[in-house]
Write a structure and sequence with these properties.
This is EcsC family protein. The protein is about 75% helix and about 0% strand. With about 270 residues, the chain is mainly alpha-helical. The two termini are about 20 Å apart.
């Protein structure tokens, strides 16, 4: 696939995102969320989202310090050396062309989707503990998947700027589809105006009211799991397992697709700039 064909594919995907029309249920749901949050005192909302952002920063620090993440980094660099023997650091991955990088990132995406599928299926067994940690685990798995895609395309996540960009991608990818086009445009503008590659000078707020729609959907998934967990087949709640596995897989698919398109676009843009 040539760079031009890939760019056309990204443009077509973006056109599809921007032309998405919310259905009546989504509009009603959006109004309900806004009305609910409007009844909460602004200071309470600010503290809530500030703590949520803080938890995401701690999650990032945990991931970057984990052996699991370091092993994944080394796997990425090892595969990169198949195409270029002089790949030593994450930044060296930018020397590969976009098709080679996409091939390597696809391996990370497939592994991430498998983890989400398995974790969702396990959650579907209906245990209270598993249901309670479902969303935190999904957040960790999806943030990790986004950051591994960024690493594959040569962006070191330990740098403050790249860390914040990965958070912004994570946030945008989790938004409802009707809001993703605007978030995409904001991300593109963010990377176009960056003058300091290691210092982030933009808005460092990550989460917001719109972002909470996906966590609320996850809570509805938990309700369905509880409803069907007593419908057993040979001692296994197959319906609940299927709901959990499918829901988590679809969320990771949505997020990794968005992240892949973003980092592909960014790589092509950097190549054009020389």
């Amino acid at each position: 696939m040539t760079n031009e064909r890939m760019m056309r594919g990204i443009d077509k995907w973006q056109e599809h995102q921007s032309s998405y029309q919310a259905n009546d249920f989504e509009v009603l749901y959006d109004h309900w969320i806004r009305d609910s949050f409007n009844q909460i005192h602004p200071d309470v909302k600010q503290k809530f989202f500030s703590r949520l952002d803080g938890w995401l920063f701690h999650t990032h620090a945990f991931l970057q310090g984990s052996a699991f993440q370091n092993d994944a980094r080394e796997r990425i660099l090892t595969v990169g050396r198949i195409f270029r023997s002089d790949v030593t650091y994450v930044e060296d991955m930018r020397q590969l062309d976009v098709n080679q990088l996409t091939y390597i990132a696809d391996q990370q995406v497939a592994r991430g989707r498998l983890y989400s599928f398995a974790q969702g299926g396990l959650t579907g067994t209906g245990g209270w503990l598993l249901l309670g940690v479902d969303f935190p685990l999904m957040t960790i798995l999806n943030l990790r998947a986004v950051q591994l895609i960024g690493l594959t395309f040569g962006h070191e996540m330990n740098h403050p700027y790249e860390m914040m960009i990965s958070f912004k991608v994570f946030h945008a990818a989790m938004l409802p589809k009707r809001l993703q086009s605007a978030a995409w445009n904001d991300l593109i503008e963010e990377i176009k105006r960056n003058e300091h590659p290691y210092v982030y000078e933009g808005n460092d707020q990550i989460t917001g009211e719109a972002w909470l729609e996906q966590p609320l959907k996850q809570s509805f998934k938990s309700l369905f799991i509880l409803m069907f967990r007593r419908k057993l087949f040979q001692g296994i709640p197959l319906v609940s397992v299927a709901i959990g596995a499918y829901s988590n897989y679809q969320l990771t698919k949505q997020m990794t697709e968005f992240a892949m398109k973003f980092y592909q676009y960014r790589h092509l843009m950097m190549e054009q700039e020389g």
